[in-house]
Design brief:
Elements: H1 10-17, H2 28-46, H3 59-80, H4 92-115, H5 120-124
Helix pairs in contact: 1-3, 2-3, 3-4
């Protein structure tokens, strides 16, 4: 099955996951599920179906939604198995994975804050 999502590309997910994400969990089926879950979360959060109405969205809306979904999927992939980051004998590699996830969470929280602002949906479409 090929990855397909209305709001984000597989390349965007891969870029956010980084080159050390463990390949055992970073497979198309998981990426598809994680992207679908993140997209559904945004739709519920904003009470607007971005996926169905993708044609009505501004380019800025598409970019910020794609960023959120890619970061959410990347976080899930990184946490699925952090052993991909264990390329050396110390804890530095795992710290790198945790730092990436924390940064993704920080940016996702900032995006959620923007999306919760009154009138933002009208601006995005």
């Amino acid at each position: 099955m090929a990855f397909s999502h209305a709001l984000v590309t597989e390349a965007e997910l891969n870029a956010m996951a980084g080159e050390l994400v463990d390949a055992t969990g970073w497979i198309e089926a998981n990426k598809q599920a994680w992207a679908n879950q993140a997209g559904a979360y945004l739709c519920v959060l904003c009470r607007y179906d971005f996926v169905t109405n993708v044609a009505t969205l501004t380019s800025n809306a598409k970019e910020i939604l794609a960023e959120y979904i890619a970061r959410a999927a990347a976080s899930a992939g990184i946490l699925y198995n952090v052993n991909g980051f264990a390329t050396d004998s110390n804890a530095a590699a795992r710290l790198e994975a945790e730092t990436m996830v924390q940064f993704h969470a920080w940016r996702m929280a900032a995006i959620e804050k923007l999306l919760k602002q009154e009138g933002i949906i009208d601006y995005l479409k």
